[in-house]
Design brief:
With 227 residues, this protein is α+β, with helices and mostly antiparallel strands. The protein has a single domain (22-225), classed as Nucleoside Triphosphate Pyrophosphohydrolase (Alpha-Beta Complex). It is 19% helix and 33% strand. It has helices at residues 31-40, 108-120, 172-175, 211-225; strands spanning 14-17, 61-72, 75-83, 94-95, 98-100, 127-132, 136-137, 142-151, 164-171, 182-188, 191-197, 200-201, 206-207. The strands form 3 sheets. Strands 2, 3, 4, 5, 6, 7, 8 and 9 form an 8-stranded mixed sheet that branches. A 3-stranded antiparallel sheet has the order 1-10-11. Strands 12-13 form a two-stranded antiparallel sheet. The radius of gyration is 17 Å and the shape is globular. The chain starts with 13 loop residues before the first strand and ends with a helix. This is CoA pyrophosphatase. It comes from Roseateles hydrophilus.
């Protein structure tokens, strides 16, 4: 069944907020703690496996994104992008850098690093991959592997202005606190969609983190919260 597209997610009613769940403690959000947790993870079932279904007639395609955690003095931050408004898929949305797996890529890590360099110009020598999260299935039929990496500061970004409107950083502690995780429900023509959001108020504007990006961050939360 075709599901309704959500063009203004920030206007969809909030049905609940997970303020009853514990935040990931600070000592679990250090580079060493993240390395150890990702290295030790056994096979596990993520809370949110995907939102596939709207374009069920499409052939599934592989993709990978980088979850870039910048090692700032005040703590880890997550580097995200806002996509340009003219793109066919996910225009204007908040995303991880990443994209489709190409034939020359040697696995999802290679895809994530290549796409990150192409989209935002983050040099590979600043990136240290520490693990992967379970594959996430998107509504556009992509099978996305999130690749988690630590990023050394001191880099200069060079954005692909066709795809990326801007790049910004959000404190990881904010995203790993479920008091900021909001559940939304949307119904149109008898068809229902649900999604998660994590709105972040930056210095100059609010960034509405939602959909697949928020879902993959929620899976990271569940991994770290159960350590």
């Amino acid at each position: 069944m075709t599901r309704p597209a959500i063009t203004q997610p920030q206007l969809v009613p909030v049905t609940s907020i997970d303020s009853h769940l514990p935040a990931v403690p600070p000592d679990a959000l250090t580079p060493d703690a993240l390395r150890a947790r990702l290295a030790a993870q056994a096979s596990w079932t993520p809370e949110l496996a995907g939102d596939g279904g709207r374009f069920a007639e499409r052939e599934p395609a592989g993709a990978a994104v980088l979850v870039p955690l910048v090692q700032r003095d005040e703590g880890l931050t997550l580097l995200l992008t806002r996509r340009t408004d003219h793109l066919r898929d996910h225009a204007g949305q908040i995303s991880f850098p990443g994209g489709r797996v190409e034939p020359e890529d040697d696995g999802p890590i290679a895809t994530a690093l290549r796409e990150t360099e192409e989209e935002i110009g983050l040099p590979r020598e600043h990136i240290h991959v520490i693990g992967q999260l379970p594959v996430y299935s998107t509504v556009t039929a992509f099978q996305v592997t999130p690749v988690v990496a630590l990023v050394e500061p001191g880099f200069t970004l060079a954005l692909d202005d066709f795809e990326v409107a801007e790049a910004f950083e959000v404190p990881l502690a904010f995203l790993m606190n479920p008091a900021h995780h909001r559940h939304h429900r949307f119904e149109f023509g008898g068809v229902e969609r649900r999604f998660l959001s994590m709105p972040w108020q930056g210095p100059e504007r609010e960034y509405f983190i939602w959909g697949a990006t928020a879902a993959m961050l929620r899976n990271l939360y569940r991994l770290l919260a159960t350590a």
